[in-house]
Design goal:
binds 7-[(3-aminopropyl)amino]-1,1,1-trifluoroheptane-2,2-diol; Arginase, Chain A; alpha/beta; globular; binds zinc ion; disordered C terminus
Length: about 700
Amino acid sequence: MAQATGTALVYDEQMSRYKLLWLDPACELEVPERLTVSYEALVQNGLSGRCVSVPVREATDAEILLAHSEEYLEAVKKTPYMSLEDLMTFTQQYGDVYFHPNIYHCAKLAIGAALQLVDNVMTGSVRNGLALVRPPGHHSQHSAANGFCVFNNVAIAAQYAKKYHGVKKVLIVDWDVHHGQGVQYCFEDDPSVLYFSWHRYEHQNFWPNLKESDHDSVGKGKGAGFNVNVPWNQVGMENSDYLAVFFHVLLPVAYEFGPDLVLVCAGFDSAIGDPEGHMCATPDIFAHLTHLLMNLAGGKLCAVLEGGYNLSSLAQSVCQTVLTLLGDPAPRPTELHGPCESALESIHCVRSSHKQYWSCLKHAADMLSYEPSTKHRKVMEGALISQNQDEQGQKTEEGSTTELVFPELLQRVAPAVRTALVLPDAVECTDGCAHFSAKKAPDPLALNRLSMNGKESGDEASLTALANLIPVIEKMEKNEIQNCLALVPDVSTAAATVVQQANTSLTKRVLVVWVGEGPLPTQMMGDEKTLLVHLGSKEQEDLNSKYYVPISLKKGCRDTAGLLQALLGVLLPLGFQFNPSLVLLVRTPGGNVATAVWQQLTCLLQGLAQGRTLVLMQEKETSSISATASCLLGNPAPSLGPLGAPMPDNVEALERLGHRLQAHWKLLQTTAAASRRSAPCGYTPSSRMKPPSV
Ligand code: FKS
Ligand code: ZN
């Protein structure tokens, strides 16, 4: 089947036609404007116009019964005919939810929207998409409404995908700030659905206050290991904390699982300014979270709205998600300080709880952290509304609806040319790329600069290839070209030239990812403007440099699972923290990396430097041109399928490397300073106590 393209937007204004009809402080946040404001923002930013508009439909009884009981469905069916008084009484049997005469209709549309999205993605009429729905779904259970949710939209979508599209494995990523206990209950003993959720927990002091939301609820029976809970025990979590969980928990497990479809419980109450979440991650983090999930399942990703109560934060987060689904480059992540102590505790605990189920975590938490940090974080001042809460985490004073207004959406302008190709004479051009012919006489200015850098000795062909790279880099810097694939006679010289050229400006920082064996250009061993990560098999002497990171793997790049672990657990955290303005991906001849893994590498690295990636390959490697160009053009990497176990030596080596480097690169940390190996999950009673209120 041809590569699916396009992003679906499933929305109907009808779902804004119900609201809270009585006074209830627990429910007053869930307003119709959540939906209309999100959609308006997509329209205003020209994003709805770039999406494929897919109509909603009502779910059928049979579809609702995929996750709910007949008794419950029959009870909800009666709500459109109830008096206000009866609705209130009906509502009272459930927690933190309200009914309205029109909510049953909307709830059927919300499921129907999710199912329409699944249909379109599974049949290949679009690549991915977002369903903007109300009511949300992830708290609702077999026979109960809960937490603004009537029917479990995403749980039903997962069952539906399995039943009607033959999907074998579904990954559900719940980035809403609340625990989707309804989804957890639905799939607890089902190994075909991997449920991941992070959530504000505060040692069970935050709603829904469940023991089973903790990291040690890993699933039951055959489903053991397929439920991953990351409890946040403090508020104020930032971009670094979210990314650290993706790099060290979710992504390794998700890649090992190898889903056929990714569903996202896309709640945006985990963003800054939200009156429920009290977190500090910025809306642009959702561009990265989305991007990081887009190369699983061959790109088949369906996001379904859950929570989000600060209307401007919500609208921006929705736009960032859709921009990324559409393939626009993600903005450079803002200042990442590394995860806080409390997040590290959570990461450590969840990795420990899951180490027996996942090869990628087998050696997790074997080592103690060497670099004790005493850092404490307070919720960003002035950015949040009232922090006054009682023991149950309920607000104790008015003002909860204070709106924090954000500046305009971060502009993300995609360059006119997505992918430039610099190829030797005889090589065919790939569709959709702009061709910068190497046979064209090079710009004399560029040639001149090269000879000033002492490159006059090379033969004419290699000089020409080099000279053609320079205008491409300049155009990338000017945002006229996003990325480039160049085949050159000698990758080593070309890489050195590019680094030199890029470093001419004071602000430029280059991440060089060197795949395969040397020779590494000697003038390029890393400095504060050049971070060099070398993925190869040769045992490297420990140079102890912060900016030269040799990752040597036994069997080199042929240990697919090991290489992927290096990519997710080391290279990406380093890259995000280094925050380059250009990524230079170099593949040496005979690097022996499988095409599918190479594509993952190429795709995932585009989350950095606003997607400014320059790939250098040896000119004979023409067979990899189309696979590489496809990734640079924004197509998802093909699914690797479930991964086997990485070679034990490699897992251990990576764990060791991470520990060696984490003093400098805090995003590599996976363990809190205070942790000890002995205790159940490594924590002393005192560190388990509720933190003082902020
Ligand atoms: C008010 C307490 C409110 C209920 C919170 C429900 C959260 C719902 C949600 C969903 F995605 F489902 F909408 N407690 N201080 O955001 O998870
Ligand atoms: Zn929520």
